[in-house]
Amino acid sequence: MKKSQEMYQKLEGLKNDIAGLQAEGKIDEAHAKLADVENLRKSIAVQEALEEEEVENFEGTPTATDEVSEVVAFNKAVLGKSLSEPENALVERVDEDGGYLVPKEQKTQIEELKRQLIPLKQYCNVIPVGTLSGSFPLEVDANDKLTNFAEMAEINQSTIKFGQVAFTLVDYGDIIPISNTLLQDEKANLTNYVGRRFAKKAVRTENEVILALLKTATKKTGADYKVIQTALNKDLDPAIAMSSIIVTNQDGYDYLDTLKDENGRELLKDNLAEAGAKTFKGKTVVVMSNTEFVSPVGKLPFYVGDLAEFVAFFDREVYEMAVSKEAGFTKNATFMRVIERFDVKKVDTKAVVYVELTLVP
């Protein structure tokens, strides 16, 4: 594991510590750790730059276990060049329709690029799967209690509330033109060039599919923010409300940002666990663009609840790359196809409430 990846894990632990202190009401202690978060972010940026420099300056004979060797082997395989036996062992081919699986380190780069955007996937229950279709047992609408097993007693199967959630992965991809001059460099990390474009499109696509599923949640309407309060206080189970977030767009966020209590204090607060983030009634507010999350005419949309209980995100957890030189013949370019596979399914229908506000002038 790269040192930068270890530092990312440390960063997540620090953020969890701050969230714990905030939940315990230790606001001063939580605020004091914000500087540690910012310093660690800067250290990660420096470390990633050093690691990238090491890759670019790498010289010598690659080995089967070397990180750069894996990049070179992948590039050569994608471009149809001959591979040595150690290099061939590092490449995973795709049997269905050609192409190659992106190496683990490069896959991690794409995932990091996606996390820098606003992926709703991170709030869902992500389930890695190894097949293109199947079913997965998930607990649904469970309010039962522990069973009292008397010695030699028969288990009452009706008390075990699990549902089989079926999934069928769908292919989502992009066609990206790559300069032939660039591809002549076997050591070039193709992910640096295709990753940013693919990551942006992938996050937009994942968000679109998740938002379409959220739209089926129970709908509540009203004329002001008190409908959101009621959703948290009464419409959601208290356990769900504790772990809930609020997903809205720029219109909804702008409305929340104008609210004040009777003493003139803003209702939208800083989230001490995440720099720049905001909370409403103690719940993290996730802001989507108006382009991604379109407001109904004359209304403000809010999804209130626990997305991890509502949405199961079935993830194949691999990216595939393949190239076609013929398609870009007239442009001195090679077209690269990048594919990911996933599916989303609704699990607990009571875990999210869709709040739609029609403001009274």
Secondary structure: elements and pairs:
Elements: H1 3-23, H2 27-32, H3 34-56, H4 67-78, H5 85-90, E1 100-101, H6 104-115, E2 125-128, E3 133-139, E4 162-168, E5 170-179, H7 180-183, H8 190-214, E6 218-222, H9 226-235, H10 238-242, E7 245-249, H11 250-256, E8 268-270, E9 278-280, E10 283-288, E11 300-305, H12 307-310, E12 311-315, E13 320-324, E14 333-346, E15 352-357
Parallel strand pairs: 2-12, 6-15, 7-10
Antiparallel strand pairs: 1-13, 3-4, 5-14, 7-11, 8-9, 9-10, 11-15, 12-14, 13-14
Helix pairs in contact: 1-3, 6-8
Describe this structure in words.
- By secondary structure, this protein is of the alpha+beta class.
- The protein is 37% helix and 24% strand.
- The chain has twelve helices and 15 strands.
- The protein has helices at 3-23, 27-32, 34-56, 67-78, 85-90, 104-115, 180-183, 190-214, 226-235, 238-242, 250-256, 307-310; strands at residues 100-101, 125-128, 133-139, 162-168, 170-179, 218-222, 245-249, 268-270, 278-280, 283-288, 300-305, 311-315, 320-324, 333-346, 352-357.
- The strands form three sheets. A seven-stranded mixed β-sheet has the order 6-15-11-7-10-9-8. Strands 1, 2, 5, 12, 13 and 14 form a six-stranded mixed β-sheet that branches. A two-stranded antiparallel sheet has the order 3-4.
- A hairpin with an 8-residue loop joins β13 (320-324) and β14.
- The longest helix has 25 residues, at 190-214.
- The protein is globular and about 70 Å long.
- The termini are far apart.
- Mean pLDDT is 82; it is low at 59-68.
